[in-house]
Amino acid sequence: MQWLSLWISLCLCGVGLCNVLQEKQVDFGLRVFSEVSRSSPYKNIAFSPYGISSILGMAQLGASGSTLKALTSSMGFSLQERGTPRQQRLLQRDLSREEAVQLISGVMVDRKITLEKSFRRGLGKAYQSTPHQLDFSHPDTALAVINAWVSDYTEGMIPNFLSSGTISEDTRLVLLNAIHFRGLWKVPFDPRLTHERLFHCANGSSLSVPMMSMTYRFNYGDFVTEDGVDYDVIEVPYEGDSLSMLLVSPFEQDVPLSAVTKGLGGHTLQQWRKGLRPVNRQLSLPRFTIDAELDLKSSLTQLGLGDLFNQKNADFSRITTEEPLCVSKVLQRVKIEVDEEGTKGSAATAAIVFSRMAVEEIALDRPFLYLIQHKPTGSILFMGQVNHPQQH
């Protein structure tokens, strides 16, 4: 059987139809995260919402029939519609203009197959990506090339994205999208104010962690879920004000984070934005580093995309007509580091496709969500949950 691989990361947008496209991408990314969180309620998670939307958008360009219908139905948009690839290109362009963000898309194709012209054109229009040939009959060499590509474009934060054995002689295509983010806080935390403090973990244990502290006029809001769970959201801006981190945590210490992540979607983010207001608060936030690897096949299947992985039903005939292809895995690796100066993060995602063949204090001393957002467009670069700050 022949394999095809896809990878993911992030992007942003401008106005008009671009906003509609971005809203759909944000909503889909948040719904995937909600599924990931549901299956791992007590683990640390680092995830790229735009990443999964971006790579499955690339897959859309090669999909046909029921596979295309499933993708567009679940994601809420189609990159095969007239004008949409240009909007996607504008999203990627807008994100790339941010000084703190490095973003690139790439395509590695086996030299034995010929790609359909429409697929090539779509990749160029939507992602400014030109396919590069690899010899997958030598999988270890191809793996080294792909991992070097990811390492280069994540500034070395993700040096070995795919493990040995992920690529085989049956691999036919790898769609790549990598992002590196280095954001400095608009107002850095003073290291002299960082002190040890108890953090109450999701499993009921407590541990002492280095807790950063700052008093500032933050955008802040308190909200209630449909199930009546109270929680608050506080926004910490990065230098330049176009990017920020949203921190979300239930009011009550014994309320699980899953009570907030349940049903998370684009409408939730819109509700937060409307409800935030500037207030003086003292924020206490633990330093943390998360290095997460996710297999997203199960989460995507729960969202109605199981046929992508079905050797009998998957239809990627717009990629090539020489042999049938289907997805075998969707993988994502995200590493994020948060300290007094700011945030450094990198993401790569892969889908392996094969032949069908004193002020009031906000103390985040319990599990919380974090989201890194591009404010002008609403795009979510990274997000995740922290259940144990000292577990990477």
Automatic annotation (TrEMBL):
Q: Which GO terms describe its biological process?
A: negative regulation of plasminogen activation; negative regulation of vascular wound healing
Q: Which domain of life is it from?
A: Eukaryota
| Annotated InterPro entries | Serpin_CS (IPR023795), Serpin_dom (IPR023796), Serpin_fam (IPR000215), Serpin_sf (IPR036186), Serpin_sf_1 (IPR042178), Serpin_sf_2 (IPR042185)
Annotated Gene Ontology cellular component terms? extracellular space
MF terms (GO), sorted A to Z = serine-type endopeptidase inhibitor activity
Keyword Signal assigned = yes
Keywords associated with the record: Protease inhibitor, Serine protease inhibitor, Signal
Pfam families in UniProt: Serpin (PF00079)
Presence of keyword Zinc: no
Q: How does it assemble?
A: Forms a heterodimer with TMPRSS7. Interacts with VTN. Binds LRP1B; binding is followed by internalization and degradation. Interacts with PPP1CB. In complex with PLAU/uPA, interacts with PLAUR/uPAR. Interacts with SORL1 and LRP1, either alone or in complex with PLAU; these interactions are abolished in the presence of LRPAP1/RAP. The ternary complex composed of PLAUR-PLAU-PAI1 also interacts with SORL1. Interacts with PLAT/tPA. Also interacts with SORL1, when complexed to PLAT/tPA.
Protein's recorded name: Plasminogen activator inhibitor 1
